[in-house]
Amino acid sequence: MTAAAISHGASPGDDHSTDPYLYMGPHDGPPPGDPAFWNAPFGAARIFGQAGTVAEAAAFFGDARARVLAHATTTPTGRTS
């Protein structure tokens, strides 16, 4: 998996959360483990109160990307399941 296979961005709110939130969604779905981090059906989400500064948002995106890419390198096919 490459970073290009990971969607990330911000939502003003929707069916997932009525609050605005940041999200990170691997195209193959979230990797197994750590349900506190991967807290959404599409991957991970943080409402703006949880990542309200640029530094917090960058840390969230960086952490999620590292977790996805680390998992991809440990699976036999290189794909998340």
What does this structure look like?
The protein is globular. It has one helix and three strands. The protein is of the alpha+beta class.
Unreliable sequence segments = none
* Mass-distribution shape: globular
Overall pLDDT score: 84
For the CA atoms, what is the radius of gyration? Answer: 12 Å
Q: Structural class given helices, strands, pairing?
A: alpha+beta
Give the H and E element order.
EEEH
User: Which sheet architecture does the biggest sheet show?
Assistant: 3 strands, antiparallel
- The amount of beta strand, in percent, is 15-25%
How much helicity do the residues have? 25-40%
Strand order of the largest sheet: 1-2-3
Number of strands: 3
Q: Determine the oligomeric state from the structure.
A: single chain
Distance between the termini: 11 Å
The number of helical elements comes to 1
